[in-house]
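Many introductory courses stop at the sequence. We go one step further.
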Amino acid sequence: MNFMMPVFSVAVPDIFLLCMVAFILLVDVFLPERKRIITYFLVQGTLAITFLLIVSQYRNYPSPIITFSGHYVLDKLAILLKMFICVISFFGFAYSRQYIQDRNIARGEYYILGLFAVLGMFVMSSGYSLLTIYLGLELLSLPLYAMVAMQKDSADATEAAMKYFVMGALASGMLLYGISMVYGATGVVQILEIGNRLMNVPMGQSSVVILGLVFILAGLIFKLGAVPFHMWVPDVYQGAPTSTTLFIASAPKIAAFGIMMRILVEALPSVQSQWVNMLIVVAVLSMFSGNVLAIAQTNIKRMLAYSSIAHIGYMLLGILAGPNSAEGYSAAMFYMSTYVIVAVGAFAIIAILSKAGMEFDQLDDFRGLNARNPWLAFVMLLLMFSMAGVPPTVGFFAKLGLLEALVEAHLVWLAAVALLFAIIGAYYYLRVVMLMYFEEPAPLFQGTRIRVAPDMMIAVSINGIAVLALGLLPSSFIDMCRISLS
């Protein structure tokens, strides 16, 4: 067996991020409590430099490079996923700063765990073997379990962490079991080799591969939070601190989309008809359950949790349309990326409005928000319009792209079902807008203005403007998604 030296230069952003995590961990140990803000700035600086390193790769690596014995790949998809992850994580930490400070949550530990999770997402994005993807997934999941439980005086957070941990362990076991079956049928774990060998698998062994596919899909669907493995989503979103909820609801979704593409499209194209049929069932059930159950919620975090289940269903429509549509996969990536931008903004407003000792997470809390802070109400309006798919926000073009891909793939009936559920979902998004603009504030809040720290206001304003700007000028973003999947 010949050993080939890995091309370490392709993993420079990952290596830099790992070194900085270790460095920040050591620095934070010796910082006095009053100077813990230094950890925050180090983490944000790390993400900024990592982003610049990734941008340089985007320009200098036009063709895919597979190295580390076939376990690591650098291509346009991996680079673009990492860029999105860096940007969303940067804004997620910025939104969390004031929230965790007001609640005496361990700041240094929160940011370091978050940075470990970002590293796990990087490994998932460039993982080109089932084992590398699994390691990245666990490196992402373990810090998230701890982040959910970091508000030690909250019984809801502790309960949410236990549910998330138990269900996550079950999903990891199913994923690993599915990987073992695929390995047993092919004898390899590298994505490219699996795809090549499954083309020549005897008919007698195809049932083993299909069974392995079922277990792998179960694990991936859990991480995405789709039906029928969605039970943890509402409880974790509601029970976790809002700073953690906005992180869970954003960047990890992008990484999970990446490994769906690697495993289903690149490793298992030979069983495409089977996983397309499975995804149709999962997508329809997710859109139905998410949109219908969200209507009955009075807690906005729980409402957005069910909403995220529905949005994952929409994203899956693009993946299952991909084999028969030139735009399917890029439409799914565009949808997932834009949804994450909207979701992180929505949870950010909840975190900004929540003061020490008071959570701003009930729908009734948004009554008359326009009278108390017109700009925050306008940004929330843009975010809700985008989730509902109202033009000219980016959510409209994201849904339109998915519907076009479905029609092109001759799945017109599925496009009609998606459109029906989108109309149902518009109700609970517009209800938030109605409460903000057409209801009076609660007597306790009448006459009081909401003051927001300047850096928070700037960040959430950029978020809201991006939702509108990407809706008015979506072509560049769509082209980036298309190029990364070509």
